[in-house]
Design goal:
Elements: E1 4-6, H1 9-13, H2 25-28, H3 46-55, E2 65-69, H4 75-83, E3 88-93, H5 96-105, E4 111-115, E5 131-135, E6 143-148, H6 150-153, H7 161-172, E7 182-185, H8 187-198, E8 203-209, E9 233-236, E10 239-242, H9 246-255, E11 259-264, H10 266-269, H11 275-282, H12 289-303, E12 304-310
Parallel strand pairs: 2-3, 2-5, 3-4, 5-8
Antiparallel strand pairs: 1-6, 6-7, 8-12, 9-10, 11-12
Helix pairs in contact: 3-4, 8-9
The structure holds S-adenosylmethionine.
The site of S-adenosylmethionine has 26 residues, from helix 1, helix 2 and strand 3.
Length: 312
């Protein structure tokens, strides 16, 4: 198979009306009666738990302006603004339908809404923000797939301009490709981090389904995650997204002078290994819907990684 770009922009700009089957961890935790909240040490929404996590690492009281890219239904920003009421927010989204939902959800708050593919946003316009959030969305950004490993070494300028760009980024950020003859690269995620970092935003939070996830501690053996080390396709309704190779994106942020904290969602959400959760994770399939929801949720908590990039 030849090199191709996985590009979801047409789907997001066109037919998409709701996130539908694309269940995010943020949305799974949104309903106050969500069974997923039962799994947590502190039953709460994703946005509130993320705020509690952030406040232990960054001076949240100094935040005046937040930008969120790809905010979905606006649930996360609604929570952040309720915890930092003095802050103003900007929502940038490629989807007209989801931006409309965000406008309704955030009507009570001081927000502006920009309909744009983030790839078209100029870095200079981002300097005004103290916090940038990209939650569970960079898997939608372009991934270049089936890149021949040999093309990185080829001294000649590659004919394919996307490969030339990958080669440039690999050299600039000292990236090392995954094993194998061919690999994929999260071009859009790397360039999004490069743009936010170039703008010098003091705190950048990025999260997504990882291709390098691992399970440690008391959860080891209970939660199964596969880590291929190479971005993998996740087929979804109307489009495909790709898992993220966070070690690459981490190097981009570090190159630009950021201290990077990296981990999985359990650092933020803190699941409790209760008798119910242990039962669900060890009992194979269950006929009870709630058990299946909990199993899916716990697996996602460990499959999703985040980068918290801080510039002193
Ligand atoms: C899977 S949803 C995640 C929504 C939300 N952050 C959450 O965690 O529930 C992906 C979001 O990213 C947006 N998005 C996808 N590609 C984008 C792009 N190139 N520029 C801006 N927004 C984009 C989508 O429209 C959608 O709002």
């Amino acid at each position: 198979m030849t090199v191709y770009v996985n590009d979801t922009s047409g789907y997001h700009q066109g037919s998409l009306e709701t996130l539908g089957w694309e269940v995010t961890v943020c949305n799974m935790l949104h309903p106050a009666d969500s069974p997923c909240r039962k799994v947590l040490q502190k039953a709460n929404s994703y946005g509130n738990l993320l705020y509690d996590f952030l406040k232990d690492h960054i001076p949240v009281h100094t935040i005046e302006k937040i930008v969120e890219i790809g905010g979905g239904y606006g649930n996360l920003m609604e929570d952040l603004l309720s915890r930092i009421p003095v802050a103003k927010a900007t929502m940038i989204d490629i989807s007209p339908a989801l931006l409309e939902t965000q406008k309704e959800r955030l009507a009570e708050h001081d927000c502006e809404f920009i309909l744009s593919d983030f790839q078209q946003v100029a870095a200079g316009t981002l300097r005004q923000y103290q916090l940038a959030v990209m939650n569970e969305n960079v898997g939608d950004f372009p991934t270049l797939c089936n890149i021949p490993r040999s093309s990185l070494k080829d001294a000649k300028k590659p004919g394919n301009s996307s490969i030339a760009l990958v080669k440039e980024l690999y050299t600039k950020y000292s990236l090392i490709p995954p094993a194998g003859e061919k690999f994929s690269f999260n071009l859009g995620a790397a360039m999004a981090m490069e743009k936010l970092a170039t703008a010098g935003i003091p705190c950048i939070f990025m999260s997504e389904h990882s291709c390098e996830a691992s399970v440690t501690g008391e959860w080891k053996g209970l939660v199964e995650v596969s880590a291929s080390d190479n971005p993998e396709k996740i087929p979804l309704h109307g489009h495909d997204e790709y898992t993220i190779r966070f070690s690459d994106i981490e190097k981009v942020a570090q190159y630009h002078g950021y201290n990077v904290q990296r981990g999985n969602f359990n650092d933020i959400l803190r699941c409790e290994l209760s008798p119910l959760v242990r039962f669900v994770m060890t009992s194979g399939s269950s006929s009870r819907d709630e058990h299946e929801i909990i199993r899916q949720f716990v697996e996602d908590v460990f499959k999703y990684e985040y980068l918290l990039c801080i510039k002193e």
